Amino acid sequence: MAEKLKINRLKVVLAEKDMSHKDFAKMMKKTPNTITRICNNEQQPSLKMLRAMAITLDVDISELLVPTKPKR
Q1: d(CA 34, CA 68)
Q2: Segment 9-24, tens digit of pLDDT
Q3: How many Å from the N-terminal Cα to the C-terminal Cα in the chain?
Q4: pTM of the complete model beyond 0.85
């Protein structure tokens, strides 16, 4: 089986914020299943939703994405 491409870091950010998927789903007015699928990189949020997630979590939007280049 091919390795799943990791695009977003939502699971990591939620852990850093000590927030459950269920609580975040309520805040985002999404189902817990949707948030779980995004956390597991089975589904990706739209840019609009990604922006709303960043605002809700009070983080820069870039923190929700896996970098394509290492920082210098």
Answers
A1: 25
A2: 999 999 999 999 999 9
A3: 33
A4: yes
State how far the Cα of 71 lies from the Cα of 46, in Å rounded to an integer: 25
Smallest CA-to-CA distance from 27 within 19, 38, 36 is with 19
- Amino acid code (one letter) for 69: K
Please answer whether residues 18 and 47 qualify as being in contact, where contact means their C-beta atoms are separated by less than 8 angstroms. Answer: no
Question: Which residue reads 């929700």 in tokens?
Answer: 64
How many Cα atoms sit within 13 Å of 43 on the Cβ side?
11
Residues 5 and 55: their CA atoms lie apart, in Å, by 25
Specify the length of the chain in residues. 72
Q: What angle do CA 40, 12, 68 make, to 5 degrees?
A: 80
- Alpha-carbon distance of 27 to 59, in angstroms, equals 15
Residues β-bridged to residue 8: 65
